[in-house]
Design a protein that fits this description.
By secondary structure, the protein is mostly helical. Helices cover about 50% and strands about 0% of the residues. The longest helix has 10 residues.
């Protein structure tokens, strides 16, 4: 859906890596949201 490998998403979620701006753009586009919405989640 986003074009970002599951392993990369897993690493981001578990704080093993910080996402690049390009990755954040891909995630936001694939999820039909904005980058700021990804950061403003109550699930941080």
């Amino acid at each position: 859906m986003t074009g970002v490998p599951r392993s990369t998403i897993g690493d981001i979620v578990t704080d093993h890596v910080s996402p690049t701006l390009a990755t954040m753009e891909q995630l936001a586009k694939g999820l039909q949201t904005t980058i700021s919405d990804l950061y403003e989640s109550e699930y941080k």
